[in-house]
Amino acid sequence: MTRAASSESPVARRILIGVGLLFLALFLALPLVVVFVQAFAKGWPMFVDAIGQPDARAAIRLTLLVAAISVPLNCVFGVVASWAITKFDFRGKSLLISLIDLPFSVSPVVAGLIFVLMFGAQGWFGPWLIAHNWKVIFAVPGIVLATVFVTFPFVAREIIPLMAEQGRDDEEAAVSLGASGWQTFWHVTLPNIRWGLLYGVLLCNARAMGEFGAVSVVSGHIRGLTNTMPLHVEILYNEYDFVGAFAVASLLASLALVTLVLKSLLEWRFGYHQARSAH
Amino acid sequence: MGLTIVWLCLIVLIPLSTIFLRAAGLGWDGFVAVGLSARALSAYKLSFGTALLAASVNAVFGLLIAWILARYEFPGKKFVDAAVDLPFALPTAVAGIALVSLYAENGWIGSLLAPLGIRVAYTPLGVVVALIFIGLPFIVRSVQPVLADLGADVEEAAATLGATRWQTFSRVILPAIAPALLTGFALAFARGVGEYGSVIFIAGNMPYKSEIAPLLIVTQLEQFDYPGATAIACVMLVASFSMLLLVNLLQAWRAKRSAK
């Protein structure tokens, strides 16, 4: 015990650990447990029945669709933005990084509202969209836009520090050996950032599938058409269909658990870890 | 490079600017009439007050959890470390219905508190509970790496000079982690002010009593009161940008400190 002089007594340690774990059990574990307990409160058949409802299935399909569009979009943007920020020098770099982080500090409801103000019936492009019979708000494109907005920073903020740390040496070597820009990216840069990219995609996907506030404002809650899984949870809950609400919620909770497991695997197995502030 | 800026403008900057342009279109009197109405003011008070309270609770317990994760060994530590991020991964609506079913009067926790006369669900206290859930990882993840990096030598020096463990903590460790703790606090607070999904189920949503500002925006929208929603959104945006500025200043302060 080299740190005996500057550490707590075993009793104090146990008390601190006990209090910390109790707090976590109360505020983190219990809510998760209650979701699954409520989902299976009336047994397995009721659970399967709730998930099999046409509206629930439509909500699941829509959530998968929205994630399938918005995650790759933000993925491409994240890589391009990090590339631009770390491989080139220009003025206003730190401002650009702050701007990319901006959606994190905007309330989800406000995020939804801005798209209503732009594309809604009273919005800037509203009359033009109506004239061309295009629906954005209260339709799938609006949901995708709002999701892209809230998940905007996830991939970029994972890769920017990673690329900055790796520097430009590998790329410069590849280029001097005659590789084209695209070859350099594909064979040098991408393998270097693959774990960071995966990490960002994981978090981005979890948020894209689970987003509630922003999507709620633009969706219009049309059952079977513009209801994502989190919105469907709300509707069922407000109709006192608790088994149904918690059944769909348990699917989302499972997604969260899978995300956490994969994220931890990335951190432990591949040593992918960055000391960074939370988001 | 150009592509980055175009995409950023299309998705983030132009949409955000619509709020300010629309709010400006209201004129000052119109803006004050809705953005600073009595109902809006009590919603801001609730949102900011509960976020402040929840962030303070999290500052204490988040610091404690970061401490045990960074300093002690105990069974299941890796598992606990991973579990701290749950609020980031769990969809807010799921958190919301889970919390309300726990804290409702017939829920697991609510039924224990009810005989004591404490009501959590459908009161401002419920809002605080939801925001504690949402904000916890911000504090832990901000403080934990700094605590882990803090060398043992300064603490040993303090102990050698006769400081008690508590004196070492309050005079040596706390000042060293203060910037990280404040950053986490600001992030948790900012998130709490804007939080919607996990709060609306447990809040009860009574105007003037348990109606948070984001919910007021949604209510205005449902009544097709776009100017009202815009004015409130504008106030919230200004607040969150100020928070963002504060976080950046804190981080600059932190960088300056560690450079010394």
UniProtKB/TrEMBL annotation, chain A:
Residues 60-261 form the ABC transmembrane type-1 domain. InterPro entries: CysW_permease (IPR011866), MetI-like (IPR000515), MetI-like_sf (IPR035906), Sulph_transpt2 (IPR005667). One of its GO terms (cellular component) is plasma membrane. It is found in: Cell inner membrane. It is a multi-pass membrane protein. The chain crosses the membrane at residues 15-41, 62-85, 105-125, 137-156, 242-262. The keyword Transport applies. It comes from the Bacteria. Keywords: Cell inner membrane, Cell membrane, Membrane, Sulfate transport, Transmembrane, Transmembrane helix, Transport. GO terms for molecular function: ABC-type sulfate transporter activity. Coiled coil: none annotated. The complex is composed of two ATP-binding proteins (CysA), two transmembrane proteins (CysT and CysW) and a solute-binding protein (CysP). Part of the ABC transporter complex CysAWTP (TC 3.A.1.6.1) involved in sulfate/thiosulfate import. Probably responsible for the translocation of the substrate across the membrane. NCBIfam families: 3a0106s02, permease_CysW. This is Sulfate transport system permease protein CysW. It comes from Sphingomonas aerolata.
